[in-house]
Amino acid sequence: MDLRSTIHIAYIGLKTKKSRTFMTMLGIIIGISSVIIIVSVGNGAQSLILNQVKSMGSNLIGIYPGASEESGPPPSALGIVDTSLKNDDLDAVMENNNVPNAIAVTYYDRGVGTFQWRDQKYDGTFVGTTASYIDVHSVEVESGRFFTKDEEKDLARVVVLGYEVKENLFGDNNPIGQSIKIKKEQFKVIGVIGKRGTQLFENQDNLAFIPIFTCQKIMLGINYVSLARVQIDSEENTDQAVADIRALLRERHKLEKNEPDDFSIRPQTQAIEIFSSITDSLTYFLAAIAAISLLVGGIGIMNIMLIAVVERTREVGLRKALGAKNKNILSQFLAEAVVVTLSGGVVGVIFGVLVSFLVAMVARQLGYQWDLVISYSAILLSCTISILIGLIFGVYPAQKAAKLNPIEALRYE
Amino acid sequence: MDQPLIKTIHLCKEYDNDGVVTKVLHNIDLEIKRGEFAAIMGPSGSGKSTLMQILGFLERPTCGQYFFDGKEGGQFTDDELAAIRNEKIGFIFQSFNLLPKTSVFDNVRLPLLYDEKHRIKNQHEAIIAAIKAVGLYHRMDNLSNQLSGGEKQRVAIARALVTEPELIFADEPTGNLDSKSGKIIMEILQDLNEKGKTIILVTHEKYTAEHARRIIKIMDGTVENDYLVKERLFAKNANDLIK
Q1: Given CB atoms, is B93 within the 8 Å cutoff of chain A?
Q2: What is the CATH number of domain B35-46+78-242?
Q3: Exposure string (b/e) for A26-43, b if CB count within 10 Å is 16 or more?
């Protein structure tokens, strides 16, 4: 009996029990579509995060105070204050060709406080930074200007507002030249930055920027830097620049050869790798959970097929009486299981792709940079798994059917 | 042609149900020639159905020998027996045993699915011819559950004919039918016998059995009587009913 007739017989067998066939398929449909959706949403989320990281520029190197493991978080991320990184350390990066690949360096301290203009108040974050900030982060000043190197050195009380801060305090009024209070200190507004949205999960529009010295001396009373970023000429020179920065900082911090670094250097390329691996493992983890539902679906199929074998005992007896060999019966029941699981798989793939498409559409509507990623390997894998489930969970019931004695089967009521 | 199609020597059959042995058949010696129309007759529990099942290779005997077409049945594997059933034997059952919700055409086609040697060259034509032979051409695309009992049995006969077997077993073929439908079935069987098919009819009714040429009477697992029917019944008048 050829494959076509086998599938034809299986099709007829399944057609006569439409609702049960559908119910059997449901387990596979849910399992396969979950796998497709999770893999697609996982890839979409990964693209979202990576786009955010990349949008900051892949030619940036972060410097954090305090030592850390190669792949662990820097101490500042864990809330540990380390005072070892000073302004001069970072200024030295640009001096004497210490780091030949460095184009610019910027560093920051930050604090939270209430901004006030007349009777308008807004709770936001102030960031003390250098004049080079706008170059390193490619920031566009919408109106007015950013502060200068001189203002930075002179402890000038000037502020550049993020878009939302300006909107909340001034509305339609022109803020340039106005005086606002940040934590009760007077500042003169000299510029407003255009809308930037969210970068790395932080809203960039509710920040206000003040010169770093002003921030350290007047606002926070500290003399250290909590984060610095070095812009280098090209991503390819990352390793060289990291080595140069490390050598420079070790020399400045007078570290002996056997002493570990008291700072952490994190190139953006590494951040991309870390985020990729985190989202990858999350996706695989969730897909593995979805795969369990496939297993459950497979067991469901085995159950239904076992019931079908009992229900169709007479049919098996008849087929054997008419000349069907054990292998014919075996292949018929196997084919039925595979037809059910494969069609369930195909429906699951279609459903999964549709849902993934909807998720991507909604995410884009919400303003996220979400790529619709339909993984062809996931589709191919799903279909292969469907067939395998049919074969594996169909074998036992099919063998049971094939082993039936024709005359006992024919007598079965 | 002289060699009998069926020959049994001291055939017996026992069933062992958890140590309780039931003797169903013993010492059956039988010869049936090609072209015969024999009725195996006996009351229920006499062993006539078991005999048919052994002769039809659906069961194996416990002892004794069974020669089919000169070959000893015991030498065949299960797969070989399946092939013999497919090629040489047609079955008609009391309860029709059609595939539910399946067309007449597909039901008749069923044994051809297992015709691995492709003996029947033009399967489509063979199916149509078999359906025409039982007068159901106009019902070909109907589903099996849309047919009357008599029509179902005629589909079963067409299914038995489609592989062009030498021997047809009919196990109580009229048992579930009204007398009119029963007559039609008997007429078709007599017709097939006229055309050369060997037919073995299993029945508990003397009336039905008398449509055959020969009656083999089984009682308590042995052949009680074996004789030619003197006043054979013919179901000729039923012929018009299917035309």
Answers
A1: yes
A2: 3.40.50.300
A3: ebbbbbbbbbbbbbbbbb
